[in-house]
Specification:
Blueprint lengths: L21 H28 L3 H20 L1 H18 L1 H28 L1 H8 L7 H13 L1 H18 L4 H5 L1 H19 L1 H4 L9 H28 L2 H7 L12 H32 L5 H33 L3 H38 L6 H15 L2 H16 L4 H25 L4 H7 L16 H27 L6 H4 L3 H17 L5 H22 L12 H7 L1
Length: 570
Amino acid sequence: MVEIPVSNESDNPEPNNKPKRSASALVALGILFSRLSGLVREFIFGIFFGIGGVSEAFNMAIRLPNVLQMLLGEGTLSASFIPVYSNELERDEEEAGRIAGAVAALLAVVAAVIVVFSVVFAEPIVSVMASKWRGDARFDMTVSLIRIIFPSAGLLVLSAWCLGILNSHRQFFLSYVAPVLWNIAQIGSVTAAALFFGVGEFSGSSTELEDISTNIEVLGGLGRVAAWGFFAGSALQFLVQVPNVRKLTKGLRFRFDLKRQGVQEVLRRFGGAVMGRGVVQISALADLFLAGLLTLGAVTALGKAQVLYIMPISLFAVSVAASELPELSRMKSIADIKERSQAGFARILFFISFTALAYFFLGDKIIGALFEYGRFTSDDTLLIWFALGAYSLGLIPSAVSRLAQNVMWSQGDTSGPAKIAFIRVATSITIAASIMWLFDRIGTTNLREALPTLYDTDSPKELLRFGAVGITLGSAIAAWVESVLLWRLADRAVPGVSPLGPLKPLLPALGAAAVVAIVMRFATDDMWPPLAAVLAVGFSGLTYLAVCWLTGVPQVNLVLVGPLKRFRKG
């Protein structure tokens, strides 16, 4: 969705298929603010909760409503609602508004039914998702948190509906920056509660808090405050978008009208989109279920690794894919769709490839700089780095698949990507379930003994084990399977669409950056973690940019502008 409005008028000064960067830049800027505030939230939660009973319960509780949000919200609406609404806007704005109102009414009722069911049956739901927790304090804590948090899912689904409206009207920034309020509400509630009751009671790394029951007894109240912050933030995220939606949408009426042609088309596409997004969410639930079977720390490690994993996908893939979908949906020429898609792949790969490299070689530096404070220890950093490193192996295919999927959605095909999503889920679950027990035999202590040159071996603690790495590795392999199948499907619909061409020019720069990253990780071993991360990532990143510039990668001008750009032309 990056781009300019498409016009058929002859006085249009630019070709219809020539992209401008303003829309994707606005999406990326909104996502950047949102993700940075998310990192601050994780930093605060890491200080007060670390990896313990409350942290595990909170991460389990928020995952379930997130599944509902993604199932009925962002991804599904992107596939089914935005193309139909965008096309209708070109013909009849009043009719588009009626379609939007009918879709909103349907979403609200479905979400409300699911929310009520989940609140009433929270205990049996947790029994299924975390059966190993029955009998310890995490189980009751998770049930309590779900009953506070789950109503937020309905608000987040309606927030995603607002995003669909605003994106279709080419207003991208507000809907993607709105989650900042969601994060601020959680940060503010936890910080205020900690200050009110006394920071000293919650912060620190007391070994007695490693016991699950003691951890929840001391920190449970603060965890419930965080859950209420989650709910308040969800309401703010929705409400801040409502005024603009009402102003832009003509003829908006919240009423059931399932016989309207546009609504029927949305529902026709919605079925395939729910199947596609649904199986992906089933995969997320399966990962959560598998993590719940592992030793303490797996659920939290999975959650924190996903925060870092999703950030570059959101910044560099969703920003392009989201801004392209309305424009691709309006295009009729296959040649224009191909050109626009290839340009999108090139922009995504330029940024995402280096991010995957940095996570793989320097992930511990990044995690240590961001989270290693208070109760969050170096053992926690090591566990999450290995989970993130496995995730990073699938970062490139996961990112480019967002745009490949949107190419298919723009052509009205939601069933093809849905079938491929089923294959991804089956692959991920099969691999994860096969290898996670092997990884769970590896603990922080014996890994440090095996890598004495990289890690201090003085730590007596062997609390955390690496089963979560098996889950993230299964996810990475499945991402490649899905991507290859999606690329082939997209190539049949739009011949010539492929991310492989834009990736090849980046290989020399990636090789040089990897060498510098390896050198810098050893050179910065004894430094203050934030400084070590800045230097290691900074030098390898500058190397990547320099080699890209020297080898003529055009996307480098997205970063190297001004004097360097003029110097090269001279």
